[in-house]
Specification:
465 residues, alpha+beta, two-stranded antiparallel sheet, elongated
Length: 465
């Protein structure tokens, strides 16, 4: 489908993963609900195209026209929107040359032909004068051509520098684009003409006089002065146009990157919300089972567990801390309460100890519920399977600028597939979402059974911003 004209087609709900639509005209197409993951849509006309509910993950839309595109509910993680344009219709005063050239219709083709002819004509003129200077042995002609080349170089440098500074003032004081170009043209006409006259009287008057005496019949001498002013006007307006276009593209890229960043943040927030929602019912389910097992046999312990459970859920629902982070001190308080709940059930079979090597570490912010699921696993897969006394140690320490959160127990060693368990997997997912490669979770059976979470301290600070 590369380089195709598919305007107005309906591709809704189609599986187009890895499809290549590069250099195609795809205006008014309906991609609603389609799978365009990894698709190539670069250098394409996508005006008024519908991408509602479309999977655009890792799709390449660079250098494409995206005017009036509907991206509502689309998944765009990893998509490339570099140098996309949102040009206005060609009948607007603010004519978009880049968008017109990208258009595969006759207008774009005509503009490209004209620009190509002008550029080629200019290059050949440079080549002609260079060849004349190099190969001609007539001193009068050589000096005149050298003067003309020097004059044009000086005029070109002046035109660009003046346009660059003058348009800064224009952009602040004038709104309409065509008025800006008109004022710029008049200014260049007057000032460039004044510069040419000054150069002529200081350096070229004798050269031109000698040339006219030696070659009185050459037709170029009869050309009116204003013929030579159009070049500077065209250069100034072209430079200003592309300067504006470049700023607009940079602004659009920045806006798009900002939008994509927000989408990534929203995606991360949604995934964290999902993890948080899954942790709470999971813990509630286990705790209620423990209470149910004690209701008839030991009502007092059941009541104690209920009160402790109430305290835990005040922690999860009533605290006014950050949605996803809390201090180590508060996390340890929750773990301590959780272990007291379990101690009601296990009695003397459960011993535990919470240790922080440096009191300053207690104020560090870590992800909520980072320790409780690990301690819960230590109970479920370790202590509950032992007839003798079980022991759980929670230790917080810092080493080599890494914060370590370690939970160890004396229960049975981890099986090979322990990493796939829900509690461990939820913590791994949360660490990846919040810290990327700056955090890790490791399971150890040697020298003793433990789960160790390591977070780079610099990543802890940056994750809160």
């Amino acid at each position: 489908m590369k380089a195709s004209s598919l305007d107005g087609r309906d591709f809704s709900n189609m599986d187009l993963e890895n499809a290549d639509f590069s250099f195609s005209s795809l205006k008014d197409i309906n991609f609603d609900g389609a799978n365009l993951r990894n698709a190539k849509l670069r250098f394409s006309a996508l005006d008024r195209t519908t991408f509602r509910n479309t999977d655009l993950r890792n799709a390449d839309l660079s250098f494409s026209s995206l005017s009036d595109v509907d991206l509502s509910q689309a998944r765009v993680e990893g998509a490339n929107f570099s140098f996309t344009s949102h040009q206005k219709p060609l009948n607007k005063i603010d004519f978009n040359l880049i968008g017109a050239i990208q258009n595969q219709g006759w207008i774009g083709t005509l503009i490209a032909i004209v620009l190509g002819a002008i550029i080629l004509y200019g290059i050949n003129a440079i080549a002609f004068f260079t060849a004349e200077i190099y190969y001609t042995h007539e001193p009068v002609r050589i000096k005149l051509y050298q003067y003309l080349v020097s004059q044009n170089i000086i005029a070109g440098v002046f035109t660009i520098l003046f346009t660059q500074q003058f348009t800064l003032w224009l952009d602040m004081l004038v709104d309409k684009v065509y008025i800006k170009h008109l004022i710029l043209s008049v200014a260049i006409l007057i000032l460039n003409n004044a510069l040419s006259i000054a150069i002529y009287f200081f350096f070229g008057i004798n050269l031109v006089r000698n040339y006219r005496i030696m070659y009185p019949n050459e037709a170029a001498q009869n050309a009116p002065w204003y013929w030579y002013m159009w070049g500077a006007i065209i250069v100034a307006n072209t430079f200003y146009y592309f300067s504006r276009a470049g700023k607009q593209i940079s602004r659009k890229i920045s806006d798009q990157e900002y939008q994509l960043l927000n989408l990534e943040k929203l995606k991360t927030r949604a995934e964290l919300d999902a993890l948080q929602a899954r942790i709470n019912p999971h813990f509630l389910y286990n705790s209620l089972n423990s209470i149910a097992s004690l209701v008839h046999d030991d009502p007092e312990k059941a009541e104690e567990m209920t009160l402790l459970l109430s305290k835990l859920f005040r922690y999860t629902t009533g605290r006014k801390t950050n949605d996803y982070f809390d201090t180590i001190e508060n996390e340890l308080e929750m773990v301590d309460t959780y272990l007291k709940v379990e101690k009601v059930r296990f009695g003397d079979r459960l011993k535990f100890n919470v240790e922080v090597t440096d009191a300053a570490l207690k104020v560090l912010q870590v992800p909520k519920f980072i320790l409780q699921p690990i301690v819960e696993n230590a109970i479920k897969h370790g202590i509950s399977k032992m007839a003798e006394q079980g022991y759980i140690v929670v230790k917080i320490y810092e080493k080599d600028n890494w914060l370590h959160l370690c939970v160890s127990d004396n229960g049975p060693a981890f099986p090979e597939n322990m990493g796939a368990g829900y509690g461990i997997k939820s913590i791994q997912d949360k660490l990846k979402l919040l810290y990327g490669e700056n955090a890790r979770l490791e399971l150890h059976n040697d020298p003793y059974k433990s789960v160790n979470i390591s977070i780079l301290k610099t990543a802890i600070d940056s994750s809160l911003n």
